Amino acid sequence: MKTKKTERQEWPERKPIPSFKSAEEEEAFWRTHSFDDVMDAKGEELKYEPQVTRHPRTHVYNIRFDDREMAVLQNLAKRRGVTVSVIIRELVRDRVGSASTNAGR
Fold first, then answer.
1. Confidence category of residue 30, pLDDT binned at 50, 70, 90
2. CB-CB contact of 74 with 84 (8 Å)
3. Rounded to 5 degrees, what are φ and ψ at 9?
4. In the chain, alpha helices (H)
5. Do 60 and 95 belong to one domain?
6. Least confident residue range of 49-53, 61-65, 87-91, 97-101
7. Closest CA to 11 of 43, 41, 31, 38
8. Contacts of 39 (CB under 8 A, 6+ apart)
């Protein structure tokens, strides 16, 4: 069974999107309105740039950990929702920061 494709009404550029009283009302709105022309005219072209927001690291150093140390680091990373390298960088920054503060006394 084919469903009839309905023509979607173009939503005015600066008109705010209405509030909806129910999920059904919102679904009906999105099925009957289009923002394509507005996005094509005013939207910017999006381009994926891997790691564009990362700061490049200029120095890389290999560190060896035993199983227990690695397990502790992985547990910390897992609890925070970050990678082990983030945890290691934070630990090093904290230690270097405190060492440089103590050296200035």
1. confident
2. yes
3. -75, 135
4. 23-32, 36-42, 67-80, 84-103
5. yes
6. 49-53
7. 38
8. none
- Please state whether the predicted TM-score (pTM) of the whole model is above 0.85: no
In this predicted structure, the answer to whether residue 71 has a pLDDT above a threshold of 70 is yes
Number of domains, the chain: 2
Out of 4-8, 39-43, 71-75, 86-90, least confident range: 39-43
Give the N- to C-terminal CA distance of the chain in Å, as an integer: 81
Residues 97 and 69 in one domain: yes
Give the number of residues written for the chain. 105
Residue 35 neighbours by CB under 8 Å, 6+ apart: 10, 11
Three-state secondary-structure class, residue 10: strand
Give residue 31's domain range: 9-42
Q: 5 vs 36, which has greater pLDDT?
A: 36
Same domain for 61 and 29: no
